Each structure stands twice: as C-alpha cells, then as structure tokens.
User: Fold Nicotinamide-nucleotide adenylyltransferase from Oryzias melastigma.
Amino acid sequence: MPNHKVTEVVLLACGSFNPITNMHLRMFELARDHLHDTGQYNVVKGIISPVGDAYKKKGLIEASHRLEMARLATANSDWITVDDWESLQPEWLETAKVVRDASMRIILRAPGIKREKVTSVRVKSKMINGPQLMLLCGADVLESFAVPNLWKQEDIAEIVGFYGLVCITRSGSDPYKFIQQSDDLWTHHKNIHVVHEWITNEISATHVRRALRRGHSVRYLVPENVIDYIREQRLYSAESERKNSDIVLAPLQRYTRASSSS
Ligand SMILES: Nc1ncnc2c1ncn2[C@@H]1O[C@H](COP(=O)(O)OP(=O)(O)OP(=O)(O)O)[C@@H](O)[C@H]1O
Ligand SMILES: NC(=O)c1ccc[n+]([C@@H]2O[C@H](COP(=O)(O)O)[C@@H](O)[C@H]2O)c1
Assistant:
C-alpha cells in the first residue's frame, strides 16, 4: 500500500483558442497521464479559459464564438470543462489573476469550506483541503516568460512557485534547457512538470485559420462539431484575420503578433 499523500489537481489552460484544436484537447490528456504516472497526483478536472476580446491579438474573433467552439469540443469529455469568467471581463487580465480567481472558486466549492475563511487564497489554501490548481500550457508560453515586459516577475513567481505549471513540449522548444538556464524558474523547478510529447503534433490555431481562409480541409485537426459551427457561422475569413492589425502595439501584442505570424 502506498503511504504517500495523493494530491487532487485541477488543470487550467489559458489561451486564445481561436479556434480550439485537437491538440488543445490532447494537452489535457497528456498532462493527466503524466501526473497520474508520478503516483502523486489525481487530476479531477480540466478547465479551458479562453481570453477575452480585449486581448488585441491579430485575427482574434469574438469570445462568444471561441467559447461556443470550446464548449462543443468538450461536450463529450467527462472531465474537461470551459470557464467563461476570463472571456467576459471587459479588460485583458494577466494570467496570474485568472489563475487566482479560478483557484478561489475551486476552493470555495470544496466541501466544508466557509467563505469567510477564504479571504486570501494564497495565504489560506495551504490550510484548506481543496484540490490544487496548476496552469497547463505549451512550451511556447513557458519560453515567453523571457520576453521583456511581457510577464511580471512576481506573476511568474506566483504561478510557478505557489500553484504549479504543467508544460507540454512543442517542436523547436527545449523547456528543460529553458528552466535550467533561468534562476527564477530553477528555484521552483519541482513545481514545473514538463510533459514530453513523443507523437509530435504541430497543430496550431494559426495553421487551422490559414487552411480555412484558403478553403482547405481542417478535418481531423479540429473536432467535427466545431467544423460544422465554423461553417454555419461563416467564421475565419481574410477579413476576420485583419482584426486588430491596426492596433498600435504594446509589448504584449508585439510578442503575440510575432508568435501568430510564424
Ligand atoms: N501543438 C501544440 N503543442 C503543445 N501546446 C500547444 C499546441 N498548440 C497549442 N498549444 C498550447 O495551447 C495553449 C493555448 O493555445 P493558443 O490558442 O493561445 O495558441 P495556439 O494554438 O498556438 O494559437 P495561435 O496559433 O493562434 O497562436 C497554449 O498554452 C499553447 O502553448
Ligand atoms: N503577463 C501575462 O500574464 C501574459 C502575457 C502573455 C500572454 N499571456 C496569456 O497567455 C495565453 C496565450 O497567449 P497567446 O495566444 O498570445 O500565445 C493567453 O491566455 C494570454 O492571456 C499572459
């Protein structure tokens, strides 16, 4: 009989999901298997949190459509759900705030928790027996931590140090080296779970949108019911791809623009 404690985990993935792809869904399955294989964690839930309309990324279509596609894509999953809180906010929110809010709501839902005891998740959650939230992302997001002015150092420290990160490898990325070379990340390396994806799969939403604009098939890259929705709603055209292209770029958009035009 194992005598160590198994921690319950909720995985939270933040992103554009413009549109959601099969690889976004695979990320959750890969992360869950990896954490279960350690024998230390039991993943009880996965949450997809699409970014709101205020995230001025080129070609980002309305959050209502991105949410609906994520809901359709997860309709058959018994553990992955979609959270609309972030997408409904009038302003763009740093990921640390999204993680904090989601964690607070998860803890408040745990049995036997009294609201008045949960004034600060960061301080109190160590004393509360609720599941632990971890941020789930691809290696490109981890490597974006090094882009100047993109992430606040205290946000990275909070996400990695207090919550935890599960990072899926992408081709061209080397998260192990990246963590090894960063003093800040190395300090918390025990909280960073790198999941090596052996069946390399470079599906990206950018490639899917490009194929759609050209009238090419995206079958087997995106769930069937999402393809039907895209067709019915006539989403992703040359015009939608021009959205936000006239924005004067802040550091955040400069980075996101660069990553989406590759
Ligand atoms: N092929 C992939 N392998 C690993 N992680 C991925 C892959 N595709 C997306 N992700 C991860 O999914 C999360 C949400 O992705 P998001 O929709 O923001 O990016 P994307 O699919 O790369 O889109 P875009 O091409 O529009 O930038 C991010 O953490 C991203 O790193
Ligand atoms: N400082 C931050 O908190 C910060 C910076 C850049 C991207 N992000 C988030 O990372 C996710 C992925 O962004 P991209 O789709 O632009 O790669 C989004 O949810 C976005 O909000 C957060």
Summary: The domain at 7-261 is CATH 3.40.50.620 (Rossmann fold). The first strand starts at residue 7 and ends at 15. The chain has a mean pLDDT of 89. The radius of gyration is 18 Å.
